[in-house]
Amino acid sequence: MPEPVHTRQALVLSHIVFEDLGLFEAPLRARGFEIESVLAAEASYPMQMDESCDLLVIMGGPMGVYEQQKHPFLTAEIALIRHWLAARKPMLGICLGAQLMAAAMGARVYPGQNGKEIGWSTIQAAPNLDPPSWFAPLLADGLQVLHWHGDTFDLPPGVLHLASSNLYTNQAFAVEDFALALQFHPEVTAAGLESWYSGHAAELTRAGISIPGLRSAAHQRASALENATHRFFNLWLDSVL
Predict the structure, then answer these.
(1) Most-buried pick from 34, 63, 141, 193 (CB within 10 A)?
(2) Crossing angle for the helix pair 73-87 and 96-104, nearest 10 degrees?
(3) What whole-number distance in Å separates Cα of residue 176 and Cα of residue 191?
(4) For the chain, how far is it from start to end, CA to CA, in angstroms?
């Protein structure tokens, strides 16, 4: 009898409903992944980590890593990430997810001294970096990515620093050949961002940031980002799976 085909499994931990997989979902589906999406605040910890799960994705969110007294689930989530890192299994962290990865590796996460970084701008390769081939699409000349954060982090020991922006030095790092942390958002679409504008309306108002301005920028830049994200994500998946 033929051996049963292994269906790949991805676990997605989100922190707010509308900050979802976005552009990452279709490539995972095309590779035959079954995707389980769980709100981190509602999850039961400790979560079972077994051989059936091939990829962990930690999405963004509005809370700070250092707000564990307000949001106790963050402590359990960091423990989960630390366990996953110890197992050396593929993992991707986006924005808050990247900050949680840094914290799980012992690095400091804190409010950025340069204020909020919200909007579209380029990232630059870290100094003296020969970028991995899978990361190169996100460093394309003139490509602008979406930033939406107020916190930043120190680089954990032993990681590969990949990118910086004009405001914040630590925008991406890789953990050996199995895990990746991105402070920015390559997964977004112009249509999907409409939920962000309403869901984060209070934050944008406090920061004095124009929603029509963000919308206009997204319509100008999201298409190029979509193409770059498609190339980057498929190349990265090829390298870790």
Answers:
(1) 193
(2) 70
(3) 34
(4) 26
Query: What's 113's domain CATH number?
Result: 3.40.50.880
Cβ atoms of residues 112 and 150 within 8 Å: yes
Cα separation, 216 vs 206, whole angstroms = 20
95 among known catalytic residues: yes
CA of 195: how far to CAs of 22, 90, 189, 221, in Å? Answer: 12, 29, 11, 18
Domain assignment of residue 3, yes or no: no
What pTM, to 2 d.p., does this model score? 0.95
Q: Which of 53, 95, 117, 149 is the catalytic position?
A: 95
Which tokens hold the place of 226?
């979509």
Model pLDDT for residues 158-197, shown as the tens digit of each residue: 999 999 999 999 999 999 999 999 999 999 999 999 999 9
Domain of residue 129 covers 9-240
Q: Which of 19, 77, 117, 187 is catalytic?
A: 187
